[in-house]
Amino acid sequence: xxxPIAEPPVSMRSMTHEDLAMVSDIERRSYEFPWSxxxxxxxxxxxxxxxxxxxxxxxxxxxxxxxAAGEAHILNLCVDPTFRSYGYGEQLLDEIMQRSRAAxxxxxxxxxxxxxxxxxxxxxxxGFHQVANRPAYYQAREGRxxxxxxxxxxxxx
Length: 157
Prior knowledge:
The protein is an alpha+beta fold. 29% of the residues lie in helices and 39% in strands.
C-alpha cells in the first residue's frame, strides 16, 4: 500500500516588513503591471489589514484590506503562481471576510479586471456581485482596461 505524502501545513498570519521581498516577488511574477515594493510597505505603514499565507516559512499568498466607516475594500489578493488551484485564494478570501465581520463591516468592495476570469469565478462563488464598472481603471498592454466593481454584503454583523 502506498502512503500519500502529507502536504506541509499552511498558516495565515499578519504580514511583516520581512515578508515584503517575497510578497513583491509574487506580485511581479503574477501581474504584468505589479504593485511596487513601496506600495506594499505603505499599506503596512498605513495600518491596513495585511495577511500572508505561510508554507514552511515561505510566503505563498497575501491579501490586503482597508476598513473604514463600516465598509472594507480588498486592495490586493494574490497567490503565488506555483500554488494556484489548491484553494489558497479562497482561504485568504474567507479569512478577509471573517475579519471584516469581526470589525463590524457591512459591505466589502473590490475591483477586478474582467479578463481575470479565475478571480471573477472565486468572487462570484463567495457571493460578490458587480455593482459598477470603472472605465480605463487598469493599465494594460494596449491602453487601459476597465475594472468590474464587486460588492458583498456581510450578514451577521
